[in-house]
Amino acid sequence: MAQEAEQRCHASLLTLRDLRLLLLAMSNAASWAQVRRTVIDVLAGNPEQARQLLIMHTQIEVKTFWRKIRVPQRTGRVIVARMNVTGRSIIATARATSSPVAAV
Question: Rounded to an integer, what distance in angstroms lies between the CA atom of residue 79 and that of residue 103?
Fold first, then answer.
């Protein structure tokens, strides 16, 4: 399998996704070392493709964590907020419901 991947890499038959998998997601087994070296050589000759591969990898590997918060109000309404913290930014959405049951 590693030999076929290397041949396809030399023949420019691999997609950017394929290159990412071979370089950054495959096993660290010795049989894949030469394939990774080939991918690195291909990317060294195309800096824009290397940049796109790193962007793709970051988007796939960076996990986002949503947290749901329910805040009961004295009026009986409940405010439901979803927060996502990634790096330095916080994304939040909130809505008010008329009953605690609807907030679940």
Answer: 8
